[in-house]
Amino acid sequence: MADSTQATITIDAEPKAIMAALADVASYPSWSSPVERAEVRETGPDGRPAQAFFAINAMITKDEFTVAYDWSGDEKVSWHLVEGKMLKAQNGSYELRPLPGGGTEVHYSLSVELAIKVPGILRKRAENMIADAALKDLKKHLES
Length: 144
Fold this sequence. Notes:
Strands 1-7-6-5-4-3-2 form a seven-stranded antiparallel sheet. It is α+β, with helices and mostly antiparallel strands and 144 residues long. The chain is globular. Helices cover 26% and strands 50% of the residues. The protein has three helices and seven strands. A hairpin with a 2-residue loop joins β5 (76-84) and β6 (87-98). The protein has a single domain (3-143), classed as 2-Layer Sandwich (Alpha-D-Glucose-1,6-Bisphosphate, Chain A, domain 4). The N and C termini lie far apart (38 Å).
């Protein structure tokens, strides 16, 4: 069974700038704490990544995996697992909503199924850490 987590944060940036940062996969190791290595494997017709490889260190597991992306303008990006070592499944998304007074609300969603058994409390802690890092690291990267 896949476990999922969701989180939301407000970032002082326009959706276009946020999506540009998310599409710059090669830069992830410089600002996303769990990501040790990242590279685009295929590029889509819009110039954004269609598939990307990641090597991560996320508290309870180190893993290497490839995901495929689906980009919806500057409103949403979603992905799913193509192949992984420790993961059986992974589905995630960032959904962006511009705010009337400026800035953007960013909603992050991640569903993961591990190939190994991990105690529930450790799994939930790792999920929360990943969601927290995904949003806070992105915010820091864009607002600094």
